[in-house]
């Protein structure tokens, strides 16, 4: 049997039906691991190998480069064909290819360049400067968000609403930005899609050509398409084009980027009228894992509805581990990983998934120390992230102002009006006097000289103000006063960056603890080379080393670290999901948004269904995150899993009862500061029996903050569950 015949023979009847569907469009709506992606790939192979179509008349589209590559690999393992000329790729990749072929129609130079997100931002900054626009009022990031948002909705400046002054100005900038890009021969990411869409819609001959060419269009992860993507697909589909979209409404996790699950219903109505195919057998996971996923997602409302079962048997129960802290959570995960590697498990079959990027640091640190190669997907390793490097550059200048690399990196970041010309002059002066940039500042001339002085004064002030602070507070102070936080507050995806910056404070605290450094800034004697180093210098070299090359080489067998978002569509033998705590997973930002918790639940469903053989979920009673200690309240999602499929490795804390929805107004745990005074809690203590006029009798579970700011988590049992009460407001009586 050829690999293709083998693959065909293992398909179940419904899969086979989907793969061999005659010329009719269809929507495959099916749960995780039911073979949607397998069906798409096998269908392509079937269409080609039965001679119905040539490889060139197939278009297949998916969401990430990793998934597109995977599809190509699967296809070429089934059929000995050259997949290179095939139109298989991401939306952006395919649109790029289209525009390359039709650059004249698209009114682009043949060698047009693509601006990535960072390039686009600098291009916008340049423009705003040239237009003399106040970047306080019209922040570059905001402008970028506006322009990209408009393009993703298919709107050119003329189509935009010009209601108020602000809006009019934005549109004016949009016009100028388009002119600048056109002049420079560049296109940004959303432009790739929009331009391709426009060329097709305006050019009848071209559209007719492609509609005739693509006999089949296949779309994976359809639940995450946005309006423009769907419109583009509709343009490409001719009278005789057969479409197959596969997706899972329960895995729709990009609503925040404009993805619309409704496209599935639309697609069914517009194309797949009588062909809704549901796959119900899951081939990926053992029963306990699947039961957990099914039970969890059944709590969501408004589902399109489908069942999922397996005949693989129960397998091992889902293991739950409650750690005392994030540090011991990481210890546990690393010990388990070691044990599994010893049993012969490949490292690449083990994945560690987390909700927020900032969570990876502690785990990275543990893997690094244990000498286990790992790879972080869909993001940089902690110390290599731009915002962390920026913060470290400020710290480096405190330690050594003559560090030119650090100087260049942050002298104008956040922007303080020091332009390229000023820096050129400064570099000339430094060369002339054979000194560092820092030392050359007094020689600076021109309009930027005063601004450069301002910068060095700021660094000097930071150094002076922090000289007696313990390392974590020093780091905290520098991050706050370098205006990095303020800068990122204005960014669209700045929240993540702020979390990472705060995480740097935790890294400093952990470093201080581990190194046994005294917690003040007194100089320490290094026992290796007799030189005197400060905790700051020690920390900086620690950061530089960890940013080094322990990251696994390409192709090397490595444990996989990624956010849940990045894990979509993938599968692993062993999966760890970290941080099962209220406010973290579900994420606190989701709690006040309509449908927020349901989107988080879908995300958890995606996470659980990545696991084939073994699934672990962990939580920490106490975690340093966002620069603060937070006390974990068990995630509501743990209570939504079937008891029979779980195995608690730690005693299940009986005091935590199920979260009920009435408690959602207090569901966001608030945080204490790491400086907090544990003792002054207005006379309350954990374990104390209390009474509240509305909620009745309860017991104090956790205390946070101190003095006037003390907050108590009180478990009232029954339908009230755990409530968080500010003690200076709530009338809480001691019983
Ligand atoms: P997701 O929703 O996570 O993207 P999916 O529906 O795309 O999942 P696949 O990745 O295609 O699912 O398949 C899941 C696993 O099941 C793969 O390892 C695949 O090889 C296997 N599989 C699919 N169909 C069958 C089958 N009929 N017999 C055996 N294994 C199968
Ligand atoms: Mg898939």
TrEMBL record:
<feature type="binding site">
    <location>
        <begin position="30"/>
        <end position="37"/>
    </location>
    <ligand>
        <name>ATP</name>
    </ligand>
</feature>
<keyword id="KW-0378">Hydrolase</keyword>
<dbReference type="InterPro" id="IPR014016">
    <property type="entry name" value="UvrD-like_ATP-bd"/>
</dbReference>
<dbReference type="InterPro" id="IPR014017">
    <property type="entry name" value="DNA_helicase_UvrD-like_C"/>
</dbReference>
<dbReference type="GO" id="GO:0033202">
    <property type="term" value="C:DNA helicase complex"/>
</dbReference>
<keyword id="KW-0238">DNA-binding</keyword>
<comment type="similarity">
    <text>Belongs to the helicase family. UvrD subfamily.</text>
</comment>
<keyword id="KW-0067">ATP-binding</keyword>
<dbReference type="GO" id="GO:0009314">
    <property type="term" value="P:response to radiation"/>
</dbReference>
<feature type="domain" description="UvrD-like helicase C-terminal">
    <location>
        <begin position="287"/>
        <end position="569"/>
    </location>
</feature>
<feature type="domain" description="UvrD-like helicase ATP-binding">
    <location>
        <begin position="9"/>
        <end position="286"/>
    </location>
</feature>
<dbReference type="GO" id="GO:0005829">
    <property type="term" value="C:cytosol"/>
</dbReference>
<dbReference type="InterPro" id="IPR000212">
    <property type="entry name" value="DNA_helicase_UvrD/REP"/>
</dbReference>
<protein>
    <recommendedName>
        <fullName>DNA 3'-5' helicase</fullName>
        <ecNumber>5.6.2.4</ecNumber>
    </recommendedName>
</protein>
<dbReference type="GO" id="GO:0000725">
    <property type="term" value="P:recombinational repair"/>
</dbReference>
<dbReference type="Pfam" id="PF13361">
    <property type="entry name" value="UvrD_C"/>
</dbReference>
<keyword id="KW-0227">DNA damage</keyword>
<dbReference type="GO" id="GO:0043138">
    <property type="term" value="F:3'-5' DNA helicase activity"/>
</dbReference>
<dbReference type="GO" id="GO:0003677">
    <property type="term" value="F:DNA binding"/>
</dbReference>
<dbReference type="Pfam" id="PF21196">
    <property type="entry name" value="PcrA_UvrD_tudor"/>
</dbReference>
<keyword id="KW-0547">Nucleotide-binding</keyword>
<keyword id="KW-0347">Helicase</keyword>
<keyword id="KW-0234">DNA repair</keyword>
<dbReference type="InterPro" id="IPR027417">
    <property type="entry name" value="P-loop_NTPase"/>
</dbReference>
<dbReference type="InterPro" id="IPR013986">
    <property type="entry name" value="DExx_box_DNA_helicase_dom_sf"/>
</dbReference>
<dbReference type="GO" id="GO:0016787">
    <property type="term" value="F:hydrolase activity"/>
</dbReference>
<keyword id="KW-0413">Isomerase</keyword>
<dbReference type="Pfam" id="PF00580">
    <property type="entry name" value="UvrD-helicase"/>
</dbReference>
<dbReference type="GO" id="GO:0005524">
    <property type="term" value="F:ATP binding"/>
</dbReference>
């Amino acid at each position: 049997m050829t690999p293709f015949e083998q693959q065909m023979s293992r398909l179940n009847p419904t899969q086979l039906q989907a793969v061999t569907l005659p010329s009719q469009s269809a929507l495959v709506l099916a749960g995780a691991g039911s073979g949607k992606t397998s069906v798409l790939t096998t269908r392509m192979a079937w269409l080609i190998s039965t001679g119905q179509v040539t490889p060139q008349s197939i278009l297949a589209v998916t969401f990430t480069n990793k998934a597109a590559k995977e599809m190509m690999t699967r296809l070429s393992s089934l059929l000995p064909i050259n997949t290179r000329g095939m139109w298989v790729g991401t939306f952006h990749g395919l649109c790029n290819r289209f525009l390359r072929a039709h650059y004249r129609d698209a009114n682009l130079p043949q060698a047009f360049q693509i601006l990535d997100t960072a390039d686009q931002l600098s291009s916008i900054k340049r423009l705003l400067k040239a237009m003399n626009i106040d970047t306080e009022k019209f922040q570059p990031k905001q402008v970028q968000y506006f322009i990209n948002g408009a393009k993703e909705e298919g709107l050119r400046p003329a189509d935009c609403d010009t209601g108020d002054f602000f809006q009019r100005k934005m549109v004016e900038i949009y016009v100028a930005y388009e002119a600048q890009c056109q002049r420079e021969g560049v296109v940004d990411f959303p432009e790739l899609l929009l331009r391709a869409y426009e060329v097709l819609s305006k050019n009848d001959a071209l559209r007719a050509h492609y509609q005739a060419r693509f006999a089949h269009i296949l779309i994976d992860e359809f639940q995450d398409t946005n309006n423009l993507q769907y419109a583009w697909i509709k343009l490409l589909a001719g009278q005789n084009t057969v479409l197959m979209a596969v997706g899972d409404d329960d895995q729709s996790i990009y609503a925040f980027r404009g993805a619309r699950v409704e496209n599935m219903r639309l697609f069914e109505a517009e194309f797949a009228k009588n062909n809704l195919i549901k796959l119900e057998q899951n081939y990926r996971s053992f029963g306990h894992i699947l039961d957990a996923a099914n039970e969890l997602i059944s709590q969501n409302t408004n589902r399109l509805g489908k069942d999922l079962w397996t005949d693989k048997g129960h397998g091992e129960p889902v293991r739950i581990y409650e750690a005392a802290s994030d540090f011991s959570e990481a210890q546990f995960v690393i010990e388990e990983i070691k044990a599994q590697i010893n049993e012969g498990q490949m490292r690449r079959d083990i994945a560690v998934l987390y909700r927020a990027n900032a969570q990876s640091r502690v785990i990275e640190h543990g893997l690094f120390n244990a000498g286990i190669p790992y790879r972080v997907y869909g993001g940089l390793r902690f110390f290599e992230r731009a915002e962390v490097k920026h913060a470290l550059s400020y710290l480096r200048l405190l330690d050594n102002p003559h560090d030119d690399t650090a100087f260049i990196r942050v002298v104008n970041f956040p922007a303080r009006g020091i332009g390229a010309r000023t820096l050129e002059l400064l570099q000339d002066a430094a060369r002339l006097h054979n000194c560092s940039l820092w030392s050359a500042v007094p020689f600076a001339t021109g309009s930027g000289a005063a601004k450069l002085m301002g910068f060095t004064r700021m660094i000097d002030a930071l150094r002076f103000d922090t000289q007696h602070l313990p390392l974590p507070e020093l780091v905290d102070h520098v991050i706050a006063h370098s205006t990095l936080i303020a800068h990122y507050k204005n960014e669209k995806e700045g929240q993540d960056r702020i979390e990472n910056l705060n995480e740097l404070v935790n890294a400093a605290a952990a470093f201080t603890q581990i190194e046994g450094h005294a917690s003040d800034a007194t100089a320490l004697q290094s026992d290796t080379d007799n030189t005197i180093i400060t905790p700051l210098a020690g920390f900086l070299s620690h950061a530089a080393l960890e940013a080094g090359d322990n990251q696994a080489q390409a192709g090397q067998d490595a444990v996989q670290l990624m956010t849940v978002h990045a894990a979509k569509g993938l599968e692993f033998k062993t999966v760890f999901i970290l941080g099962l705590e209220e406010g973290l997973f579900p994420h606190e930002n989701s709690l006040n948004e309509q449908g927020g918790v349901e989107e988080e639940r879908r995300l958890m469903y995606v996470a659980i269904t990545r696991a084939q053989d073994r699934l672990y979920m962990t939580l920490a009673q106490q975690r340093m995150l966002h620069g603060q200690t937070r006390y974990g309240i068990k995630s509501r999602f743990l209570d939504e899993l079937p008891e029979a499929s779980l195995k608690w490795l730690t005693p299940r804390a009986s005091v935590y009862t199920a979260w009920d929805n009435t408690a959602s107004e207090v569901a966001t745990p608030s945080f204490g500061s790491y400086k907090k005074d544990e003792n002054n809690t207005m006379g309350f203590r954990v374990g104390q029996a209390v009474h509240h006029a509305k909620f009745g009798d309860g017991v104090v579970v956790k205390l946070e903050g101190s003095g006037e700011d003390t907050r108590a988590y009180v478990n009232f049992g029954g339908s009230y569950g755990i409530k968080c009460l500010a003690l200076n407001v709530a009338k809480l009586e001691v019983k």
